[in-house]
Amino acid sequence: MQKDNGSASCAANPILQSRRGSPRQRRWAPKVKTGCKTCRARHIKCDEAKPACKKCISAGKRCDGYVYNAAQKTPISKTHQVPCDALVTHHMLPNHQNPMSLCFTEIKPSRPPSNELTSATGSLVYILNVIDPAYSVLSFGECLKDYPQRMEHNKVLTAASKVLTASVFSFYTGSISSKPLVPYGEALRVLISSVGAVHGKTQIVDTMCAIGILLASHVCQPPTITRGLKLKFVQNVRGSNRREFEVLLRGLVYFLDMLGDEELDNAFDNEVVSNLRRLVIVSSIMDPTMRFNPRLHYGKKRQSGLVATAPCNVGTARCSQQWHDLIQISSYLEDPISNLDHITTTYQQLSTHLALLEKNATDVFRKVKTSRDSLLSLQYIRQEAGNSGLLTMAMALNMALRIIHPRNSALLEEAVTFVSVVLRAADRVSLFKPLNTALLGNCLCLAWVVAVNPQEKERVRKMLDEHSYIFRGTTWEVLATKFQKRFDSIREWYRWYSLLGQVPSWQQGTKDEDVSACPP
């Protein structure tokens, strides 16, 4: 009986069996899908530490790294169109009358080497696949298609992409979430720690691109949250208040000065720098303390390049203005008397080009309404964004010239024309209500300031109220007040010069004077 008990205990004890030469009966640990190659081969649980797991180090084993599974981390669907209700729930689409449906297109990222990068790339590719004009982040720029391929080489790009995806997902669901808070703080830490180590053209452009992504994440807020404590909470979570927005803009000025007149090598760099230059120039008109390095204007000038304003495949209207001229608009407004020749020349060129660009945008919009092509719609939205930036510059120069030439009727007529162009552009863009509306919002605010008569101001005010979704994190009254203060300072400066008698008599103006006839 004891022998039987001993046999039973021996059979139940795999250690005793292995000591007596019997086959090993010990059960292996359950197989796991994650972990390093060595731990998976040894059938033990891995702590997944990097670059080598602690299990292998403590056991004196060589850690062979981790397996990248692209199928699990980066799902990429084939090119197709999917109805809205098959992709998102009903409450995620506030505008049910939108004729466009959420469309997906294939964007292939480079193969990332780590699980963290894989997850960030997969999330970014998912939102890049959305090409519906109302929800696509591609309205910020077509260059974002190449963004995943550059994330492997720059940690700042990876950190910024996490912020964008978290903010966009919150925008899609329309919910208040604290999820974007963690990646936003992490992205700022990575950005601040890497500023001193940025050198070379590629790193400068990548860092500027990351800042642009953080600026875009400020725009991606649920449009249903408009007031009260909820808005304040969302602003704190996403960093979506104006002060932080302006801090990032000053970071762009710093890196644009660092980039100087370097020649850009590829389409990605050119589009990124072009879009961010336009954004900073418009912001510098509103805020005179945001200044560029003068060497960008008085340097070689050969690499600044043309201002790209027509990214559409249809139409060839372009602006022949050089960036090195537009960059100095804010500094021109600080001393308009001394820079009157530059202001007049730049204003006349912008006025001529904007007439052609507005006609081209109208033609493209007609084709969009006829074809209902999502990709063409995104190209049109990007074109309107470029035109809005140039309109803001032209209206600012118009207002400065009107202060110097208060009796010039031609300037008043041109101001009325500019306001009408802005209202027509806002009416066209309202069909899509895209994410990229920052420049249009600034343009509308300046149009309210520039409007000649109360009737025009009322028209602009109604349009601003209808497009309140543009001003996420601020209000149009705040931005309009900043423009108004800028022109009030010009009036005070000009009045002071007049009292001192330092303004030539020909600058006082006559009823029908011509700005182009003024001597330099």
Automatic annotation (TrEMBL):
Keywords: DNA-binding, Metal-binding, Nucleus, Transcription, Transcription regulation, Zinc. Pfam families: Zn_clus. GO terms for molecular function: DNA binding; DNA-binding transcription factor activity, RNA polymerase II-specific; zinc ion binding. SMART domains: GAL4. It comes from the Eukaryota. InterPro entries: Transcr_Regulatory_Proteins, Zn2-C6_fun-type_DNA-bd_sf, Zn2Cys6_DnaBD. Residues 1-20 have a biased composition (Polar residues). Residues 1-29 are annotated as: Disordered. The keyword ATP-binding does not apply. The keyword NAD does not apply. Residues 35-63 form the Zn(2)-C6 fungal-type domain. PANTHER family: ASPERCRYPTIN BIOSYNTHESIS CLUSTER-SPECIFIC TRANSCRIPTION REGULATOR ATNN-RELATED, TRANSCRIPTION FACTOR DOMAIN-CONTAINING PROTEIN-RELATED. This is Zn(2)-Cys(6) zinc finger domain protein. The lineage of its organism: Eukaryota, Fungi, Dikarya, Ascomycota, Pezizomycotina.
